[in-house]
Every structure is written in structure tokens, then in C-alpha cells.
Amino acid sequence: MNHGLLNGLFIVSLTILFLALLLKKAKQPYFIAYIIAGIILGPEVFGVISNSPTINEIGELGVILLMFFIGAEINLPDFSKSFKKPLLGTLSQLLLSFAFMVITGQILNWSWQVIILLSFVISLSSSAIIFQYLSNTGQIKSKIGLLTSGVLIMQDILIVPMMLTLNFMAKGKLETIELARTVVGGLAILIFMHFAIRKKLIKIPFRQDLIRDHDLQVFLGFVLCFGMAQVSHWFGLSAALGALLAGILVGQDKSTQWLDHALVPFRVFFLAFFFLAVGLQLNLHFAYQNIGVISLITLAVMVINSLINAMIFKGMGSTWHDSIYAGALLSQIGEFSFVLVSAAASLGVIGDYSYQMTLAVITATMMITSVWIGIIQNFIYKLPKLSHN
């Protein structure tokens, strides 16, 4: 038995539990505890965890499971009726983010590669944080909750063309086979979505046996979630996108609703490791040396994202009250931006300084999200007329 592994798991669990209890008293979300635990236990502080690639892989499983749960909660017929608004809103957000980055990049003399990459990065909000927030506040099925969820899902889907763009910028071309496979995968998804809306796609066999057997429930969920994630990845698409589709597939059959309860502990465990990996990757020495620049950029990102999204939601017909609130919800930079930045660094699109700076800013925006939302809500309450316009 590897007692070092046991010791590591014990220390990680104890640290997260202690930090989570403190944050619970402060009414802050638990993901902050996971990030802080990663920083404390990482190689730059206590060095309890040194094999960060393994943690990263476990963390990726957390994102995949999260997307599976999101898919299971989507009411596809209702979502299809309002499909255009989230799509147009997300594309508008990307264009406005690009315009902002072009202006900033021209002033700071950035390359077009960096401008495009950072446009992608700031346009992606955190599904992990906001879906959990909306669920905890009971707003997940409200009008603004559904519209915000739609935008988040569209952002997650856009990670595919973003990754293709990064590869093109790095290599100067796209492999024909890679592009063809991605196009075929995209078409397959569109066909899948069409039939999912029009017909019941799935009838789980032996459903009565499954309902009575918790072990079979868990493994059926894993087969559907990870199986479709693997298929999606093979087509050159995001594995998380495949998991989202698996969740939609399951969500259309009422007899599979027990999967949500069966897999909740796994989602909590793996998602905790994702945020733990975020903390592990932070270079504390770099963050300390550049704390002023990081703070300034973080504040600028939160303000700009809030303004951009508030204008977009107002353009989609929301009240000013809901629009400003939605802007706050989508103000942070999300987990898929970590994927983009890591890919850009490995492809040589950005250097180590830009990588560490972006990593620090993404983490900072995540950690102050709940505080930022609280500030914006207090601002809204002081302007009651906005809620009626």
C-alpha cells in the first residue's frame, strides 16, 4: 500500500475541510477553498503535492462531470425555443471583447496572436462557478438564469473553433484530416441535437433494475458521460462538449433522473481537484512581484466584462436590473480559458511571462466573483428604478 498517497489524500482533505468551514462562515463559495488549498499544498509552500500533471488530469474529469450534470438539467425543448438569443449574445460578446483587445493591443504594441488569444480568454466565463451559484440561489430556472445558462453553454461550445484557431496561428495551417474530422463531428452534433429535440432518443433497458441498484446507476452514468466525452474528443472537439451531450441524452428520459443524485459525490470530488490544480499552477513569486499589475488587470477585466455583458443582455430584451446582474455573473474568466492558455503556451503562441500573468488574472477573477456579484447587487438595490425599466 502506498502510504505516501494515503498521507497526501488525508492532508488534502483536511486542508480543504478546514478552509471550506472558514469560507462557509464568511458565506463564500467552496471553490475558493480548493484554489487556496492548491496554493498552500503546492511546491512553493509546503510541497505536499508535487505531481501536478496527475492533479490536472483529475481536474479535467471534474469539468467533464460538471458538463454532464449541466446537460442533464437542460430542458431541451425550452432551450431550443430561445436558442438564438444566447447564440447572438455570445457572438456579440466575443466581437466586443475582440474590439476591446484590439484597442488595448494597439496601445501596448501586442502581436495579433496575443490579441486574438486574449479576446478568446476574457470572453469565456466560468460554467463551474456560475451554474453552482445559480443552483444554490435557486435561480437556475428563472428567466435570467436560463438566459445566462444558455450563454455559458454557447461559450463552452465555442471552445472548439477557438482551439482550431490557436492551432492555425501556431502552425500556419490546419491538417486536412484534423479539420475534416472536426467538421464531421460538428455535423454529428447538429444531427444529434435535431433528433433530441424532435424525438425521444433514449430508452434505458432494464430501467427497473437500475432504479433499485445504486452501483449499476453509477457505472451507467460513467459509461454515458465518459464514453461520449471520448467520442467527442476523437472528433477533435472538446471532451466536455461530449459530456454535455451525454447529459442532454440522459435528461430527456425521466427514468434516468436518479443519475443526478448517484453521481453528485463524484462531481464534488473531481471538481475540487480541478480548482486544486489551478492553485498548484500559480507561481507565487511571480504573483508577488507583479501584484500591482495583476490587480489592475483583474479589476479592468471584471469591469469591462460586466459592462459588455450588461449591454448584451439589455439588447436581448432583459430589464436593466437583470442585465446588470447578468453582467456581474459573467464578469469572471472561466475554466476553459485555462485550457486555451495552456494550449497557447505549449504551442509557443505566448511566452512564460504572458502565461503566468494570464493564469494569475484568471485565478484572481474567479476568487473575487462572489464579492463582485455582491457589490453589483448592492448597487442595483440602491437604484430601484432600474428594475422596472
TrEMBL record:
Keywords (A to Z) from UniProt: Membrane, Transmembrane, Transmembrane helix, Transport
Gene Ontology cellular component list: membrane
Family statement drawn from the similarity comment of this UniProt entry: Belongs to the monovalent cation:proton antiporter 2 (CPA2) transporter (TC 2.A.37) family.
Membrane topology listed for this record: Multi-pass membrane protein
GO molecular function: antiporter activity
Record-linked InterPro entries: Cation/H_exchanger_TM, Na+/solute_symporter_sf
Alphabetical list of PANTHER family matching this protein: SODIUM/HYDROGEN EXCHANGER FAMILY/TRKA DOMAIN PROTEIN (PTHR42751), SODIUM_GLUTAMATE SYMPORTER (PTHR42751:SF3)
Chief localization: membrane
Chain ranges passing through the membrane: 6-23, 30-52, 58-76, 88-108, 114-134, 146-167, 179-197, 218-250, 262-284, 291-312, 324-350, 357-380
Gene3D superfamilies given in the database record: 1.20.1530.20
One of the GO BP terms on file: proton transmembrane transport
Name by which UniProt lists this protein: Monovalent cation:H+ antiporter-2, CPA2 family
Pfam family for this entry, one: Na_H_Exchanger
Domain Cation/H+ exchanger transmembrane: 15-376
Cell compartments where the protein resides: Membrane
